[in-house]
Design a protein that fits this description.
This protein has 176 residues and is an alpha+beta fold. 56% of the residues lie in helices and 22% in strands. The protein has a three-stranded antiparallel sheet with strand order 1-3-2, with helices on one face. Strands 4-6-5 form a three-stranded antiparallel sheet. A hairpin with a 2-residue loop joins strand 2 and strand 3. Helix 3 packs antiparallel against helix 5 and helix 4 runs antiparallel to helix 5. The two termini are 38 Å apart.
């Protein structure tokens, strides 16, 4: 019987809540989050348990990180994994959620999306510049670069729109 498996992510910009629910359902089946994987998560087999997962976004130095982790631990949340400023915590199903009001949820979304609009702008400018270069050079290599930059640019624009939509929804309806 296999001891590890991979599940895909819907993209945290688009389906953060659904991803966390999917991880909780997997834990109820005995598959527990181990760490992030390319476009998803690595799970390991264990005993079925009823838990909830939560993701948070922070850019911390080493001194701040321990205080931050202690704060979550004190609230009943345990760090499972972290990568590039994303921290996934687990807690029993009856543990109080960390983000309960609109202001803290907005703050979380702002932290999550802080670099994405900048990335969208940079990749869009690079895409336009590469298309101009491609018109002059006209080679297959520059065409491939143009295509890849265009895909990255479209993805970052989609993520930007998604985060702004989530923020709008949170402000208007009080839900994420």
């Amino acid at each position: 019987m296999r001891q590890r498996k991979y599940i895909s992510s819907g993209g945290l910009a688009f389906s953060e809540k659904e991803d966390m629910q999917k991880l909780a359902k997997q834990a109820a089946k005995g598959w527990h989050l181990q760490d992030f994987a390319f476009m998803g998560y690595r799970l390991v087999r264990g005993e079925p348990i009823q838990v909830q997962y939560m993701i948070d976004y922070r850019t911390l130095d080493e001194a701040e990180e321990q205080e931050y982790l202690d704060m979550f631990k004190h609230a009943g949340w345990t760090l499972v994994c972290s990568s590039y400023g994303m921290y996934i915590f687990v807690a029993p199903r009856d543990a109080a959620p960390i983000y309960t009001d609109v202001e803290t949820k907005q703050d979380k979304l702002k932290r999550a999306s802080s670099f994405i609009p900048k990335m969208a702008l940079v990749t869009t400018i690079l895409t336009i510049a590469s298309f101009m270069i491609n018109r002059v050079i006209d080679s297959s290599v520059t065409a491939i670069i143009c295509f890849l930059l265009f895909i990255i640019s479209m993805c970052s624009i989609a993520m930007t729109v998604s985060f702004y939509f989530r923020m709008f929804k949170l402000v208007r309806k009080g839900e994420d």
